[in-house]
């Protein structure tokens, strides 16, 4: 299995939204990846390197403590509305992805840098999709509601700007949603095919395989946006976030298998909510 580069969704050098360094993973006989990464930080609130202390662990992590535009946040109701045509224009494709692992997570990175995995255009600039990863439970919340899984599609522009498309997953048997703006596209029951295709590759240690991401984001549902940061160290700021207003479905079994696959602590692998500090939220849904 190939290692992931130094990475992510918004990465210039490519700093991963899940880790500062990604490495090769192996899978044991139970289908759980065996981690071989340096323990630079954790999500376990019982340990000294928990999210509250990330900014004190290393000098390069200082932004996690001192930054004023950090992620994740709660998407509240006090938003400005704009036309969808003014928002992001994703062109996500079916493409080959390569797997690698970081602290308490794994990620799928585009197997080349030619834009073959797709792009998103916003503000006259094109961002290439470079990384996909998940968090459970969700890092962001919608009107105060946390979701079982949140997916991040990390993009980077040629000049190093970062953009992330986020997408929430709700249990297929849970019909309680948070509000009119944040609604599922439709009720679906059973396993999510997108998650299944990924978890099969993780379990069977495929290393590189083809993934169809086209149904993950539905442009007609719109997006809500703000300026934030990476949600893992070094917590780099000035990341443009777009949360898809399509809430996907996922089975409880799939969420359990994801948690097993990345060896998360009992709290999961999500960073706690950060102060909004007066930032504007814009929803491109009109």
What does this structure look like?
The chain has four helices and 18 strands. With about 290 residues, it is mostly beta strands. The chain has a single domain, classed as Roll (Carbonic Anhydrase II). Helix 3 runs parallel beside helix 4. It is globular.
Q: Which tags fit this structure?
A:
Carbonic Anhydrase II, two-stranded antiparallel sheet, zinc ion binding, zinc, mainly beta, 4 helices, 14-stranded mixed β-sheet, 286 residues, disordered N terminus, EC 4.2.1.1, CA_dom
Question: What secondary-structure arrangement, pairings included, does this model have?
Answer:
Layout: E1 26-27, E2 33-34, H1 54-57, H2 63-66, E3 74-75, E4 80-82, E5 89-92, E6 94-102, E7 105-110, E8 118-122, E9 125-135, E10 141-142, E11 149-156, E12 162-171, E13 183-184, H3 193-203, E14 208-212, E15 223-229, E16 237-244, E17 246-250, H4 252-262, E18 282-284
Parallel strand pairs: 3-10, 4-18, 12-16, 12-17, 13-17
Antiparallel strand pairs: 1-2, 5-8, 6-7, 6-14, 7-9, 8-9, 9-11, 11-12, 15-16, 15-18
What can be said about this structure in brief?
With 286 residues, the chain is mainly beta. It has helices at residues 54-57, 63-66, 193-203, 252-262; strands at 26-27, 33-34, 74-75, 80-82, 89-92, 94-102, 105-110, 118-122, 125-135, 141-142, 149-156, 162-171, 183-184, 208-212, 223-229, 237-244, 246-250, 282-284.
Global morphology: globular
CATH architecture: Roll
Total beta strands: 18
Task: Tell me the CATH topology.
Answer: Carbonic Anhydrase II
Low-confidence stretches: 1-38, 175-189
Binned, the helix content reads 10-25%
Helical region count? 4
Sheet with the most strands? 14 strands, mixed
**Name of the CATH class:** Alpha Beta
Number of domains: 1
Which secondary-structure class do the elements indicate? mainly beta
Distance between the termini: 44 Å
Please give the radius of gyration in angstroms: 17 Å
Mean pLDDT: 79
Order of helices and strands: EEHHEEEEEEEEEEEHEEEEHE
CATH superfamily: Alpha carbonic anhydrase
Strand proportion = 25-35%
């Amino acid at each position: 299995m190939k290692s992931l580069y130094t990475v992510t969704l918004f990465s210039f050098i490519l700093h991963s939204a899940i880790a500062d360094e990604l490495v090769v993973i192996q899978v044991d006989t139970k289908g759980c990846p065996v981690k071989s990464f340096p323990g630079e930080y954790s999500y376990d609130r019982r340990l000294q390197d928990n999210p509250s202390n990330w900014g004190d662990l290393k000098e390069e992590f200082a932004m996690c403590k001192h930054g004023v535009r950090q992620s994740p946040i709660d998407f509240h109701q006090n938003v400005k509305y704009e036309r969808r045509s003014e928002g992001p224009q994703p062109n996500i494709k079916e493409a080959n992805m390569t797997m690698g692992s970081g602290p308490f997570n794994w990620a799928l990175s585009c197997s080349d840098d030619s834009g073959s995995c797709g792009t998103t255009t916003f503000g006259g600039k094109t961002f290439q999709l470079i990384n996909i990863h998940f968090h459970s439970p969700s890092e962001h919340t919608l009107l105060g509601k946390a979701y079982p899984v949140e997916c991040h599609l990390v993009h980077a522009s040629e000049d190093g700007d970062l953009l992330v498309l986020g997408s929430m997953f709700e249990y297929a048997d849970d019909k309680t949603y948070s509000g009119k703006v944040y609604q599922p596209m439709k009720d679906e029951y059973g396993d999510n095919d997108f998650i299944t295709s990924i978890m099969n590759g993780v379990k069977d240690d495929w290393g590189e395989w083809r993934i169809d991401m086209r149904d993950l984001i539905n442009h007609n549902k719109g997006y809500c946006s703000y300026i934030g940061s990476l949600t893992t160290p070094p917590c780099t700021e000035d990341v443009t976030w777009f949360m898809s207003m399509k809430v996907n479905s996922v089975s409880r079994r799939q969420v359990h298998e994801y948690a097993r696959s990345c060896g998360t602590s009992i709290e999961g692998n999500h960073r706690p909510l950060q102060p909004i500090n007066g930032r504007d939220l814009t929803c491109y849904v009109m």
